[in-house]
Amino acid sequence: MEVGLVRSIDIDHEMQQAYLDYAMSVIVARALPDARDGLKPVHRRILYAMYDMGLRPDSAYKKSARIVGEVLGKYHPHGDMPVYEAMARMAQDFAMRYLLVEGQGNFGSVDGDPPAAMRYTEARLAGPAMEMLADIRKNTVDFVDNFDGSLTEPVVLPAALPNLLVNGATGIAVGMSTNIPPHNLGEVIDALNYMLQNWEKLDDISVEDLMRFIKGPDFPTGGVIIQTAQDEDLQAAYGTGRGKVTVQARVHPEEMERGRSRLIVTELPYMTNKSSLIERIAELAREGRLEGIADLRDESDRQGLRIVIELSKTADPEGVLQELFKNTPMRSTFGIIMLALVDGEPRMLSLKQALRAYLEHRLVIIRRRSEFDLERARQRAHILEGFRVALKNLDEVISLIRNAPDADVARTRLIKRFRLSEIQAQAILDMQLRRLAALERKKIEEEYKAVLAEIKALEALLKSPVKMRQVVAEELNAVKEAYNDRRRTQIVRLGKDIQASAPLLATTSLTPEKTVWVSVTAQGLISRTQEDKPPRMSGNAAPRWILQVSTRDTLYLVTETGEAAALLVQTLPEVENPEEGIPYFKASALSESDKLAALFALPPKDERPEGWQVVTTTRLGLIKKSAISELPGPATKTFTLVKVNEGDQVGWIRLTDGKSEILMVTADGMAIRFLEEEVRSMGLVAAGVGGIKLQGRDEVVGMDLIPKEGDILLVSSDGKAKRLPPEQFPLQGRYGLGVIAWKLPRTAQLAGMAAGKGTQRVILHTNKLAPKSIRLDEAPLQTRAASGKAILDLKAGDRVIDLTIPWEVPRPGRAKEGTAEAEKPVRKPRSRAAITPASPSEEKKPAAARQVAKVGEPKNLVRKVSAKPSQEEAQPAPQKTKARQVKKATPQTQQPLSDKKTRAVKTKKSEPEPVTAPTKTPKSKADQKQTAPPAPAKSRGGASQGKSPEKPKTVNSSKQKEKTSPAKARNLPKARQTSFEDVIAKEEDETPTTAIKGRQRKK
User: Fold this and answer.
1) What pLDDT, on the 0 to 100 scale, is given for residue 866?
2) Co-location of 772 and 628 in the same domain
3) DSSP labels for 431-463?
4) What pLDDT score was predicted for residue 906?
5) CB of 311 within 8 A of CB of 317?
6) Which stretches in the chain have pLDDT values below 50?
7) Which domain holds residue 33?
8) What residues does 937 pair with on adjacent strands?
9) In what side-by-side order are the strands of the sheet with 62-63?
10) How far apart are the first and last CA of the chain?
11) Is there a domain that residue 951 lies in?
């Protein structure tokens, strides 16, 4: 019943209808993203407004207040703060996997700090946003009127970037919500390409097929996704659009002084507030609900997030970590709800449906863009045809236009005389006189041909769905090439007997142990690659150092000054190409001014062989060894591995069992071989003892261990090389002049050395050429007196400056019970690795204590000194330790090694006698005994300064044989033989019979 203007209605029906209208408005126009471009209306309007303002990635920033005002005034009639917050979120690297807005100023932090006021911050579009807006001016999407009908805005963006999945979305509507996690761009594009290749069989593609490419969410803050063997939540979420995953922080332990340890948190679950997390941990510790925490600090800086949890000496790190995961946001559940708008309606999408919706959108974009380009090309061809007609009848056209009273008459006469269209006639009238020149006429002909070819190509494209899908794939690959990066979130799949709530200590427990390649480029970029994707060993992309390790190992980076930093291999970024790595000073505690000299790695403490030593050699001939048990674990501070004197630098590092034989070579071609037992173990801050005496401007260019099987490779600076059997180098006492290993011409020097079997590889580095990998057996097997063979074709002015060796560490005690390998006598592994990496097809072998060869290249091959170094320079400072006890030497024992008493260490008669180094001073008795080991120093703990040389140890035939027996001096395994390009077949063991062995058998 109506009374005047008042109408009576049913309140129930009106409220239901009003609520439904409101709910649909919130769902469609505010809270849910579109499945095609993954954007809500406010984000779409912000990006389009910034594009319209010309805020490109290469343009200047503009105040956020100016941008917000543009959006409010033209497209989004709502509050200014919601618009600013929406824009700020697209500029937060902890919220967006791929930034759409590039901000300048304070745009918030992971601590929950809000962005600064919009009058202080500035912004512009980021690179990925330009992909979202690409071709928007080519009628690729529909436009609608804005709120007041004065302007138009896009309904959806072209979206060359699959934004819905790569950046995800979150929103709460009325009666529904969405929570789509971000993913890795490269993985998503690989899945899209797979669907394009199998477009005719889309119904046959399963979730399992797509998950071969998309492993799971990839959050911008990293973290670890835990999946048990029985857990199928992730697969269910991708199959139905709804599920959940468990995400936890990335934690690793660090050792401290006095047996204490600390937990380091470097990554947090997505959308976790760091400040709230720290407050929660502190609250639990104060209430006594969390025991074992001694200190809690936030050491986050520009290098990244770092929360330090120091533990008490009696605390169990694994138990503390379990309580942290249980009672704090360090472990949380991310609920996946893949709800998005499809055709204007909310719909729950599976992974396949989301990918398909995007591909169908891109196919529409390509079709509309091609139609637009085709129409433009046809219009241009039409005008060019008119130009061609006018140029063929140039004189008549000029006369006709000149005699016409006005432009309208001229246009009419042109249309009537040459049968032109009105558009063609107008274009002729608008033509500039300079285009009548012969060169311009030629350009018109060439442009006409190009336009016809474009028309033909576009028509063929529009007629072929296959070609259109190829275009989509090409553009997706271009986006991947430009913006793809490594996965940040690790996915750990636990065994059947492990629950997701079980205590998992740090990175080493979270990560299944696997073999990887660690590479450091000449530019100092460090990274790791998968075992089946070894770095290239030749060419410009070849790394400076290569190391094959386990993800649970500790990597040690050593500088030229003897400082070292320890870090977990797992913390290094995993990349496809070593050139995509990060600077070593960002991955470790080293500073940017530190220059790398060498690196090596050790397995976890419970797997390290007992009694092993790390041997360090400097370029001025000092040698030192320390027990690996003294090396600290991963930490944020550096430590001193060896004290380096002024003017000297670290050269080479090897891991030994303490019973090896050491070979050192110099740039002038001298070499010395001595027992490792002559170098006593020292503390980390010691400088070492003299290993070889240097003359003039000579310097050490290589140090290695005498191999049980194999030869010694020498490479000269002029590109020549040769191999020598170990018996070519007689055993001498430490700190002698040595013997001539290679008599080189004055224009060349020794560049480096390597020890191993013929199938091993080394990488040669030159001044100008790209690094080149060679096998040891490419060099001829010769004697010390031979001149070698050219293995590199060097250009004028070029020279070999260095060689490096890839390494790995076999691990002892990994053979299965009952196998032939297990029944073999267990030998401690050599620290030497197979030179070439394993092929994926080869059966995996155990791995162990590893090291990387050779140091960074010296600035000059010839060290510039003003005069011959004195004994004070050649010998290290005395150590305050107990001196070795040495038997009294008889007159016979102080004779050179060629004496009867030391005949056991001489080489065979058929081999050359040891050649002593020539000296410039007249020969004296001391000169005649230059091959004998120097006498021990009388000072405590090392060589004396400015005193007489060391007296040799008493050597008799029985003890000498015992010390020099390779079987007893070294207990090391054979190296693994594999190849980068193909698996190198296992060769027969080359075990040269040394003179020492022959003498022992004969006796």
Assistant:
1) 35
2) yes
3) --GGGGSHHHHHHHHHHHHHHHHHHHHHHHHHH
4) 38
5) yes
6) 1, 496-510, 810-1003
7) 13-180
8) none
9) 62-63, 122-125, 101-104
10) 130
11) no
Tokens 């219009």 correspond to what residue?
Answer: 379
Q: How many helices (H) and strands (E) does the chain have?
A: 25, 44
Asked if 248 contacts 500 with a C-beta cutoff of 8 angstroms, the reply is no
Q: How many domains in the chain?
A: 3
Helix, coil or strand: residue 265? strand
Provide the pairing of β-strand 307-311 with 293-298: antiparallel
Sole residue written with tokens 């021990």: 936
Token pair of 119 as six digits? 């009058």
Please tell me whether residues 631 and 718 are part of one structural domain: yes
- Taking alpha carbons only, the member of 889, 905, 881 closest to residue 959 is 905
**Do residues 127 and 160 lie in contact, with contact meaning Cβ atoms separated by under 8 Å?**
no
Which of 329, 356, 385 lies at the terminal end of a domain, its last residue? 329
For strands 582-583 and 525-530, give the pairing.
antiparallel
What is the per-residue pLDDT for 1002?
A: 35
> Which residue is associated with the tokens 């040690």?
556
3-state secondary structure (DSSP) of residue 374 = helix
CA 367, 371, 377 angle in degrees (round to 5)? 140
Q: For residue 803, what are its two tokens?
A: 């060689």
CA 37 to chain centre: 31
Domain match, 171 and 270 both: no
In this predicted model, what pLDDT tens digit does every residue of 521-530 receive, in sequence order?
888 999 998 8
pLDDT score for 8:
83
Is 51 considered catalytic here?
no
Contact present, 308 and 299 (Cβ < 8 Å): yes
pLDDT tens sequence across 640-669: 999 999 999 999 999 998 889 999 999 999
Q: How far apart are CA 731 and CA 909, in angstroms?
A: 16
Give the position of tokens 């020279």: 799
Same domain as 609, residue 740: yes
Instruction: Judge whether 675 lies within some domain.
Output: yes
1000: helix, coil or strand? helix
Q: What is the dihedral sign for C-alpha 961, 967, 969, 974?
A: positive
Write down the residue that tokens 């901000």 correspond to: 103
Q: How many whole angstroms separate alpha carbon 451 and alpha carbon 436?
A: 20
Q: Kindly state whether residues 175 and 255 are assigned to the same domain.
A: no
Q: Measured on CA atoms in the order 335, 336, 341, 342, is the torsion positive or negative?
A: negative
Task: State which of 806, 830, 851 marks the end of a domain.
Answer: 851
Residue 765 to residue 773: CA distance in whole angstroms:
9
Under DSSP, the state recorded for 373 is: H
In DSSP terms, which residues pair with 781 in a beta bridge?
Answer: 723
Q: Are residues 666 and 519 in the same domain?
A: yes
Phi/psi-derived region of residue 131, left when phi > 0, alpha when psi is between -120 and 50, beta in every other case: alpha
User: Tokens in use for 751?
Assistant: 């560049």
Q: Which CATH number characterizes residue 155's domain?
A: 3.90.199.10
Contact 192, 358 (CB under 8 A): yes
Q: Is 591 exposed, middle or buried (0-12, 13-18, 19+ CB in 10 A)?
A: exposed
Q: Do the bridges between strand 224-227 and strand 490-493 make them parallel or antiparallel, or are there none, so unpaired? A: parallel
Question: Kindly report the CA angle at 65 between 59 and 70, in degrees rounded to 5?
Answer: 75
Q: What is the pLDDT of residue 604?
A: 85
Rounded CA gap, 25 and 897, in Å? 97
Q: Is 210 exposed, middle or buried (0-12, 13-18, 19+ CB in 10 A)?
A: buried
Q: What whole-number distance in Å separates Cα of residue 207 and Cα of residue 355?
A: 11
Q: How far is CA 875 from the centre of its chain?
A: 41
Whether residues 37 and 144 share a domain: the answer is yes
Nearest-angstrom CA–CA distance, 41 and 287:
47
- If asked whether residues 153 and 54 sit together in one domain, one would say yes
Which of 48, 120, 448, 556 does the annotation list as catalytic?
120
Task: Please list the residues that pair with 661 across neighbouring strands.
Answer: 675
Of 17, 45, 44, 41, whose CA–CA distance to 29 is shortest?
A: 41
Per DSSP, 936 falls in state: P
Question: Is residue 740 domain-resident?
Answer: yes
In a domain, 612, yes or no: yes
CATH number at residue 837: 2.120.10.90
